[in-house]
């Protein structure tokens, strides 16, 4: 039981990282990763929304939509649930952490349409995870998202201070750096199964 939970957690964080392996949630990944504090803030916000959304979407699907033959409504239902938690995070951040709220800007409400958050909730159903496994997967995906943002914020600070040709300055250098970080995460393939195999 614990072994399977660790495999799910580490896989979601490293080998199946939503940003660097599945290429979901790229918009906040590129938009917010300029500074470390905004990267950590966005990562924690996304992790919170992923866990809370999973807490609600799993029972809504298994107890309501699937038994009534309304599985085709899951995407709409899941987006509405995700939007509810994003609004909650936005209200809390605006009151308690105004500086972070301002630094995240437009990317905070965009968590609602962040395909990584929706992807986790749908993947939990498609992978036929139990409720607890779904929560562990959501936690791992959120932590993996945070790791990707934090790592890339460090890489971006180095790239912006590097002496690169004029043609590659700005977005091209950022995309090249992102692809190199993504390739580096491929080295984790097989590691998780090897640890617990």
Helix-strand pattern, N to C? HHHHHHHHH
Question: What is the percentage of strand-forming residues?
Answer: under 5%
Parts with pLDDT < 50 across at least 5 consecutive residues: none
Sketch the major β-sheet. none
Walkthrough of the structure:
The chain is mostly helical and 197 residues long. Helices cover 74% and strands 0% of the residues. It has helices at 2-15, 26-32, 36-65, 74-96, 98-104, 115-126, 131-161, 171-185, 191-196. Helix 4 crosses helix 5, helix 4 crosses helix 6 and helix 6 (115-126) runs antiparallel to helix 7. The chain is globular and about 60 Å long. The mean pLDDT is 86.
Kindly list the characteristics that best describe this protein.
mainly alpha, globular, 0% strand, 197 residues
Short note summarizing the structure:
It contains 9 helices and no strands. The protein is an all-alpha fold.
């Amino acid at each position: 039981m614990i072994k399977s939970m660790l495999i799910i957690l580490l896989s979601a964080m490293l080998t199946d990282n939503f940003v660097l392996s599945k290429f979901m949630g790229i918009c906040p990944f590129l938009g917010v990763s300029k500074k470390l504090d905004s990267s950590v803030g966005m990562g924690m916000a996304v992790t919170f929304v992923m866990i809370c959304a999973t807490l609600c979407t799993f029972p809504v699907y298994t107890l309501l939509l699937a038994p009534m033959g309304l599985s085709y409504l899951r995407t709409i239902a899941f987006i509405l649930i995700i939007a509810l938690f994003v609004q909650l995070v936005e209200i809390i951040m605006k009151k308690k952490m105004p500086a972070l709220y301002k630094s995240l800007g437009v990317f905070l409400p965009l968590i609602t349409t962040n395909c990584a958050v929706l992807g986790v909730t749908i993947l939990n159903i498609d992978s036929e995870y139990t409720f607890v496994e779904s929560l562990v997967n959501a936690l791992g995906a959120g932590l993996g998202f945070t790791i990707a943002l934090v790592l890339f914020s460090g890489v971006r600070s180095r790239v912006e201070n590097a002496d690169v040709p004029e043609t590659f300055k700005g977005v091209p250098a950022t995309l090249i750096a992102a692809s190199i970080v993504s390739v580096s995460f491929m080295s984790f393939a097989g590691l998780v199964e090897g640890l617990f195999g």
